[in-house]
Write a structure and sequence with these properties.
The chain is an alpha+beta fold. The protein has seven helices and three strands. Helices cover 30% and strands 8% of the residues. The protein has a three-stranded mixed sheet with strand order 1-2-3, covered by helices on one side.
């Protein structure tokens, strides 16, 4: 996107067709307006894309630097500068600024505080002496320039508020203790299944056999002749 003369750049609003009808077939008038169209085309292009000029991600490099100068920031940091100015002087704005500049979110402790209560003579919150403490926790405190942090805080804090900067080492995570085995959990009761046919069955009561009927005499056994004779005849012979 350029604001300079671009050879051959067409104009979205050429002047020739807008002239009165008497100049429509005047070759000299049309040539003059075509020259003016080439001069005005970059200006009209800027006006058509004016919203992009105020977006640092889309604006030309020279205009992005101008935007940064307007809001007191570099061109790449200009998008969040308006919000940063709105939060300037607050604990949230100071913490976000330190995080953006040094890569770690600090802890902010300030003396001021607010509260409300429906009880009379409720003690006021905060501390009597004004001040703010900026505590930056990092893995290696020697790698952070504490003087640079203090200089940044001095420019971002409320001007009347004393401050103190602390750069401390991050607390190591607690060691995980081995877990002790607990009592074994009782096994859930099993549901009764079908009886096992392989186990011997218990004997039941003896079955009472029905009485047998007498059959015909066995002819295979010897017959006693005396048993076949009847009683003696009393008449005799």
């Amino acid at each position: 996107m350029s604001r300079r003369l671009v050879p051959g750049l067409p104009s979205r609003y050429p002047l020739g067709p807008q002239l009165p009808a008497v100049y429509a077939e005047d070759d000299n008038a049309q040539r003059i307006t075509e020259g003016l169209d080439e001069v005005l085309a970059p200006i009209l292009t800027v006006l058509d894309n004016l919203a992009a000029y105020f977006d640092p991600r889309l604006a030309p490099a020279d205009f992005a630097a101008l935007l940064g100068a307007w809001v007191g920031a570099e061109g790449t940091a200009a998008p969040g500068t308006v919000l940063a100015h709105a939060r300037r002087g607050t604990a949230a704005g100071l913490a976000e600024g330190v995080r953006a500049a040094f890569g770690a979110l600090p802890e902010i402790e300030e003396s001021g505080a607010t509260t409300w209560s429906a009880t009379a003579r409720t003690p006021l919150p905060g501390a009597a002496a004004p001040g703010v403490t900026v505590r930056l926790r990092v893995p290696d405190p020697d790698a952070v320039d504490a003087a640079a942090v203090a200089a940044y805080v001095a420019g971002a804090r409320p001007v009347h508020l004393p401050f103190r900067v602390e750069v401390v080492r991050t607390d190591p995570p607690p060691l995980a203790l081995p877990s002790q085995p607990g009592p074994p959990s009782p096994a859930p009761p099993s549901e009764p299944g079908p009886p096992d046919s392989s186990l011997p069955s218990e004997p039941g009561p003896p079955d009472s056999a029905p009485p047998s009927r007498p059959g015909p005499p066995d002819s295979s056994r010897p017959v006693d002749p005396r048993a076949s004779e009847g009683p003696p005849d009393p008449r005799g012979r």
